[in-house]
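Shipment paperwork, digital attachment
Item: protein structure file
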Amino acid sequence: MKLYMIALMAGLMMSMAACKKQSPVEELGATSGRLRAEVRVTLSNRRPALEETVRVTASSWHTEDRISKVEFLHTLIEKFGVKLQLDNTTFSTWSSTDPVMVVTDTIKKNEVWKSVSSVNKELDNYFVTATNNYVISGDYTLFKPVPGTYAMEGQELLMKLSEEAFSILRNQLSFVIAVADYQKLFPNAPAANYTTSGTTRTGISDAGRAYLRANLTRQLLVDTGFKSLKKEGTLRAILTVRTIVDSGAAAEVVNEFESTF
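Attachment content:
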């Protein structure tokens, strides 16, 4: 009988242990500081024009109040074609719907533009007692085209284009170039390079276009004095707000917007 009672009590204890629920906080390790913070972000404008200021507001909290830093970061990505202007010819490889040539350039990547930390209790200045959280705002003023891998315009941009990009530019030019600009580039080109009406050169023949594609160089464009070469395309901003706790665990919110230039 005594053995039976011991076995019964042992069974009841095992059953109670099996039924005990472990709280989510315990599973996440609340007492070890491994919980991520919570973060919410609002923007004053989700479709800003270039160079327009966007107010970014972050609200953050942590169950153990162990936030060590709140960072505001941005990434800028350009996708562009080019607009080339000669004396009598102007064309662009860019189109918002069907671009002929697209170059992608990451100008900034996860670069911090604002940061608030718990060092010297700086973070305490942003604590809101009524809502029991930290509220930090910053004015994002960096949404504008800036030189990255490629200059914004001119000879430096021309020389930096890849061989593939310049080949596309050269090919497009061969179809639209005016006779006067062709003659300036190739003053000694054979007569077969032109279409004529009587004695007047009215256009560029198939042979003339092939000749341009085979012989036009960047340096020749520079030497003959192209009027302008400028980037045209879109600029995309990726804004990230990241809250980091003492253990290094991080929570972040990402927002994106884009505009043409």
